[in-house]
Design goal:
It is a single chain. The chain is an alpha/beta fold. Among the domains are: 165 residues, Alpha-Beta Plaits (2-Layer Sandwich); 133 residues, Rossmann fold (3-Layer(aba) Sandwich); 105 residues, Serine Threonine Protein Phosphatase 5, Tetratricopeptide repeat (Alpha Horseshoe). It is built from 24 helices and 14 strands. Strands 1, 2, 3, 4, 5, 6, 7 and 8 form an eight-stranded mixed sheet that branches. Strands 9, 10, 11, 12, 13 and 14 form a six-stranded mixed sheet that branches. A hairpin with a 3-residue loop joins strand 2 and strand 3. The N and C termini lie far apart (82 Å).
Length: 602
């Protein structure tokens, strides 16, 4: 058998970031983007470097170069050109990842094969968006300035590669180098680079186990047993989509049907932490379903609620009860879990506990609490750098820090917030909270809401009862010139979780929508409602001030400005305008006009 022809060459692998999402959002538009990039930035430039395209893959390609220096210089020029292209666009940026490797390839007349091609594509997936990743062997071939431009990224764990790979990263001028995600035990530092740590051992599932017990039929003739069973079945199915908890299967729960049950014994027998029990009653043509949540360990009642309907539409009532319970249980269980985490010693705290402890600080919407949340999330990431929950929430906290004018370095914080969101998106499991947090960061920090909507809609596809996702959907719709739709989403969030600790944010969202619709008195009313729900949330006085002034409520507007200046005496109109990242054009001008009328200084 003839020996295969081989050659040592240099390969640059390119791949468009988020191509699948772009295709889902706008198939023809995404294809046009790829063609435009090849037509304007790739094909006209590679000949000068003696290069040629050896494979195209829809969202990327492989380019062969005669030398390492040719590959590096061309790829740097390409990524610099992409950065300039993005800066000139009024739409969301298109980012490309690139990797350069030395490759020992098998040659045919019209193609190239070999394990090195797979390696190049694996390294490319670890490259920073808009940047370049190279291996140590490539950098070793470089001298002087090209070599110095690449920064050490440590050792990467690449899928299907059985050994850690030492890598170096480069980013175009003006773009921040990504932060490093350390291995367990290290801490995140501002100047470090983003590298995926070696994958840790599979972590245990720390979500609390919950059981929905068969409901009692308390109707006079006891003839609604099948309806009660249907309520439990629908509720179990709905709760199984709530990512924050695990639910005991219906068949296991129904072994307790008709038996007197002590919740403490049940907790020990099934290992459950929370128990949902309830009953069905009839009065005339009305049916009432009552449900309650009990902590198994203590027997304490954490929540109770009820829903009424008619005997003529039992399926609708079953759906309504399941939605009611799912919407109410999440904040009730979250609060109980936060209290459990607080009772633990510092030595036993895990990433999950630290995320829980950060949440009350995160939703407090106060400067000092936001800093406390960031500190706890940093500790969580020191334990597990791959925690998409901690990464996504940290991005959200940083974006709050910018828009509420708490940041000492908004440019740095914005870059880091978007980077945490991108990394969380890469690592995320199908978790509605993570998807919502990623979407919130993109929504707060971008005028274009398309990417934010993609993640928020994914969160709602995973769990349509998640009030936080409906709240963030409302904001994204409001900033996408759909404030009427935003009002509907905020109303849905409020109805789903009437006792949610961040319900005030939905009130602020209602104010935002009415402001954008020109309903300034209504906007001032809802801004006041938000402040009533969270009195220390000083930033919302901006919304109250501008809405009240534009509706003629001058004294209320001036009072709001005094509250703003009491916290931040240096606050100015220019500072507020610089902090708003997701509003532009006439809407932003009107917002600033209202603040000026209210007395905020220039």
């Amino acid at each position: 058998m003839a020996r295969a022809r081989r050659r040592l060459t240099v390969i640059a692998a390119l791949d468009m970031v988020g191509y699948s999402e772009l295709i889902q959002r706008d198939e023809l538009g995404a294809i046009r983007e790829v063609r435009s990039i090849y037509r304007n930035l790739v094909r006209p430039t590679i000949a000068r470097f003696g290069a040629h395209i050896i494979k195209t893959m829809g969202d990327g390609g492989l380019i062969e170069f005669p030398s390492v220096l040719d590959a590096v210089e061309w790829t740097m020029a390409f990524q610099t050109g992409m950065a300039a292209r993005n800066a000139a666009r009024d739409r969301a940026p298109i980012e490309v990842r690139a990797a350069i490797v030395l490759a020992d390839l098998i040659l045919t007349d019209d193609d190239r094969f070999g394990a090195a091609i797979g390696f190049a594509m694996r390294l490319q997936t670890a490259a920073p968006p808009g940047g370049i990743a190279i291996t140590h062997s490539v950098r070793w071939q470089l001298l002087g300035e090209p070599a110095a431009a690449f920064k050490p990224a440590g050792f990467l764990s690449l899928r299907s590669i059985p050994y850690p790979v030492e890598a170096w990263f480069w980013m175009p001028e003006g773009k921040p180098m990504p932060r490093r995600v350390p291995t367990a035990g290290q801490t995140l530092t501002p100047g470090s680079l983003a590298v995926l740590a070696l994958k840790p051992a599979e972590a245990p599932d720390l979500r609390p186990l919950t059981v929905v017990l068969p409901f009692d039929d308390l109707s006079p003739r006891a003839d609604h047993e099948s309806f009660a069973d249907g309520v439990v079945e629908e509720m179990t199915a709905t709760l199984s989509r709530v990512r924050d908890i695990r639910v005991v299967a219906r068949n296991s729960a129904f072994t307790y049907k008709g038996k007197p049950t002590d919740v403490r014994s049940l907790g020990r027998d099934l290992g459950v932490r929370y128990v949902i029990e309830g009953s069905v009653r009839q009065s005339g043509e009305m049916l009432r379903v009552t449900a309650q949540l009990v902590e198994a360990e203590t027997g304490a009642h954490l929540w109770s609620g009820r829903k009424d309907g008619t005997i003529h539409d039992p399926l609708a009532l079953q759906d309504d009860v399941a939605t009611l319970v799912a919407g109410a249980l999440r904040p009730a269980i979250r609060t109980a879990e936060i209290e459990r985490s607080r009772r633990k010693t510092s030595e036993t705290l895990k990433t999950h506990d630290l995320i829980l402890q950060a949440m009350p600080h995160f939703w407090a919407h106060r400067r000092e609490d936001n800093a406390a949340a960031l500190a706890l999330l940093e500790k969580a990431l020191a334990i597990d750098p791959r925690s998409s929950g901690a990464l996504s929430l940290k991005g959200w906290c940083l974006s709050q820090q910018i828009t509420y004018l708490w940041s000492e370095d908004p440019v740095r914080d914005r870059a880091e917030a978007l980077e945490f969101a991108e990394l969380a998106a890469e690592l995320a499991e199908p978790d509605p909270l993570v998807m919502t947090a990623i979407g919130a960061t993109f929504s707060i920090l971008h005028t274009d809401q398309s990417r934010a909507l993609l993640f928020i809609e994914r969160a709602l596809a995973l769990d349509s009862t998640f009030a936080w996702a409906w709240t963030r959907l409302g904001y994204a719709q409001a900033y996408s010139e759909g404030p009427e739709l935003g009002i509907e989403s905020f109303e849905k969030a409020i109805a789903l979780s009437p006792e949610d600790p961040i319900q005030f944010n939905a009130f602020a969202g209602m104010a935002t929508c009415h402001f954008l619709l020109g309903h300034y008195a209504e906007a001032a009313h809802w801004a006041a409602q938000a402040l009533h729900g969270r009195p220390g949330m000083v930033w919302a006085y901006r919304l109250l001030a501008t809405s009240a002034s534009l509706s003629g409520q001058t004294s209320l507007a001036r009072h709001a400005v005094r509250r703003l200046l009491a916290e931040n005496p240096a606050l100015t109109l220019a500072g507020v305008r610089a902090g708003i990242q997701n509003l532009a054009g006439p809407a932003l001008d009107r917002y600033m006009e209202g603040l000026q009328l209210a007395g905020l200084p220039d």
